[in-house]
């Protein structure tokens, strides 16, 4: 019996050790498999971290500076330029209209403007995905959302892009103020601007500038789908580097419609409406010129060669326009004027805006030179033909200059004329070859973009002015106008006697 029990105990021990050995052997592949899964997960996480867009600090710094420069263009630049051109009794009213309009549009941009202009929606409007700039900061991940530039794999923080574009919306709306200066109600300016911004600026900005970004064009298979998500004018292939259509033509048409619908100033054509301070106008024009480097070169969205090209074109084209305007004025009137030189500078800046990063240096100089003469005609001959009291020549400079610049962009973008050409394929970022570039075709595309912008802004402006007129009225009384808007609208004066 003892032997039997000893044998059973020995057998159980052997089975136990064998089972443990088998269990250990069976667990080793599972552990190995688990280790492989963990390693694969770690590799995947590392790859995801590498692939995640990282904003470029140099580009980000350049865009922050460019945003500041555009703010300087508006307040104080545009405000002083316009303020010096009106009569002394209306100086503060113009400063107020520019500053408050700019401030209001910045707030509206943050609430809904950016979302409707720069998110995926349809060919004319974006969506509500970025209302109140929701999503530009990820609270969960603790990171800023990236915004694409024009180079594959290069990003800036979306919040910086949104701020940069906010300043564009603001100055565009402020440009309109010059067309009906010295006789419009302050409340009418604000209500009209809010309506026009919503139904003209936003859709035009979306149509011209919204696209899915270069990294979305990963292969030839997705090109058509990505193009279909872009804005309507982008899909057409129109070139607008910094806002010839979105900013200048858009605002100029709204200003011209306003000049007609608000009506002429009391005494227009009978009394002298001379600028009260050309010194301030010159200071304002100078600030515009300096700030415009952020406006144009900043539109490259990167601190790269295209920013440099836009910078240089903004420098030389503006100088050429100043000279052209002075030459034209000397030929017409026998002498050049400070007002003419300042106006010529703005004409050159306007005309080079759509072309800044899209044409070569010689093309930029020619665009500026032609614009100097064209806009001189715009504020003299064309203004008389139209018969509108466009107080500060918004259409004569921004309309004529913007249209001219947009069309000539199609000409001088040609690599045969020293231009950088247009992108033919965003998958490889290949450019249109010199022998394949058609000036006539590109100019026709540019013309269609110009005409569409004119129609949109014109129709929206007529409706918006009519609504404002019905709700609160457009202009002040004749007595208030003669007294001056500084006192009648704001209860203060720019200068004390």
From TrEMBL:
Would you indicate the residue range of the signal peptide?
1-23
Per the record, membrane topology reads: Multi-pass membrane protein
Pfam families per the UniProt record, alphabetical? Ammonium_transp
> Keywords assigned by UniProt?
Ammonia transport, Membrane, Signal, Transmembrane, Transmembrane helix, Transport
Principal location:
membrane
Q: Where are the membrane-spanning stretches?
A: 61-82, 94-112, 159-181, 188-212, 232-261, 273-294, 306-326, 338-355, 361-382, 394-412, 443-465
Q: Does the keyword Signal apply?
A: yes
Q: Which PROSITE patterns match?
A: AMMONIUM_TRANSP
Where in the cell does this protein reside?
Answer: Cell membrane; Membrane
Domain Ammonium transporter AmtB-like: start-end pairs: 61-495
The record's listing under InterPro entries reads:
Ammonium/urea_transptr, Ammonium_transpt, Ammonium_transpt_CS, NH4_transpt_AmtB-like_dom
Quote the PANTHER family the UniProt record gives: AMMONIUM TRANSPORTER MEP2
Q: Which family does it belong to?
A: Belongs to the ammonia transporter channel (TC 1.A.11.2) family.
What this protein is called in its record is Ammonium transporter
Lineage of source species: Bacteria, Pseudomonadati, Pseudomonadota, Betaproteobacteria, Burkholderiales
Q: Gene for this protein?
A: amt
């Amino acid at each position: 019996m003892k032997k039997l029990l000893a044998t059973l105990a020995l057998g159980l021990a052997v089975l136990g050790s064998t089972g443990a050995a088998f269990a250990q052997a069976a667990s080793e592949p599972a552990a190995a498999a688990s280790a492989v899964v963990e390693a694969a997960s770690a590799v995947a996480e590392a790859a995801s971290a590498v692939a995640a867009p990282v904003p470029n600090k140099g580009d980000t710094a350049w865009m922050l500076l460019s945003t500041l420069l555009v703010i300087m263009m508006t307040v104080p630049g545009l405000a002083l330029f316009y303020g010096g051109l009106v009569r002394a009794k209306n100086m503060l009213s113009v400063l107020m209209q520019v500053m408050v309009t700019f401030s209001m549009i910045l707030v509206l941009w943050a609430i809904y403007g950016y979302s409707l202009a720069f998110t995926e929606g349809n060919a004319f409007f974006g969506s509500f995905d970025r209302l109140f700039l929701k999503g530009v900061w990820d609270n969960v991940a603790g990171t800023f959302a990236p915004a694409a530039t024009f180079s594959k794999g290069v990003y800036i923080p979306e919040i910086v892009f949104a701020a940069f574009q906010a300043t564009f919306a603001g100055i565009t709306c402020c440009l309109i103020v010059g067309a009906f200066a010295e006789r419009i109600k302050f409340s009418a300016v604000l209500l009209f601007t809010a309506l026009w911004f919503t139904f003209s600026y936003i859709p035009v900005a979306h149509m011209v500038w919204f696209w899915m970004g270069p990294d979305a064009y990963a292969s030839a298979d997705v090109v058509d789908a990505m193009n279909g998500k872009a804005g309507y004018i982008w899909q057409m292939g129109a070139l607008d580097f910094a806002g010839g259509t979105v900013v200048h033509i858009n605002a100029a048409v709204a200003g011209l419609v306003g000049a007609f619908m608000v009506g002429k100033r009391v005494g227009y054509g009978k009394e002298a409406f001379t600028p009260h301070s050309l010194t301030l106008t010159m200071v304002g024009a100078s600030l515009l010129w300096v700030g415009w480097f952020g406006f144009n070169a900043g539109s490259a969205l990167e601190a790269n060669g295209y920013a440099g090209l836009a910078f240089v074109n903004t420098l030389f084209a503006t100088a050429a326009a100043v000279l052209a305007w002075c030459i034209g004025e000397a030929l017409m009137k026998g002498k050049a004027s400070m007002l003419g030189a300042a106006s010529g500078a703005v004409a050159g800046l306007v005309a080079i805006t759509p072309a800044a990063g899209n044409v070569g240096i010689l093309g930029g100089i020619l665009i500026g030179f032609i614009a100097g003469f064209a806009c001189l005609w715009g504020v003299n001959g064309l203004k008389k033909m139209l018969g509108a009291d466009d107080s500060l020549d918004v259409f004569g400079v921004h309309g004529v200059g913007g249209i001219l610049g947009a069309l000539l962009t199609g000409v001088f973008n040609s690599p045969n004329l020293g231009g950088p050409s247009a992108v033919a394929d965003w998958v490889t970022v290949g450019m249109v070859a010199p022998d394949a570039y058609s000036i006539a075709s590109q100019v026709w595309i540019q013309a269609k973009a110009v005409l569409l912008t004119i129609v949109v802004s014109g129709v929206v402006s007529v409706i918006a002015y009519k609504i404002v007129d019905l709700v609160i009225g457009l202009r002040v009384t004749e007595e208030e106008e003669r007294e001056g808007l500084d006192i009648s609208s704001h209860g203060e004066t720019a200068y004390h006697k």
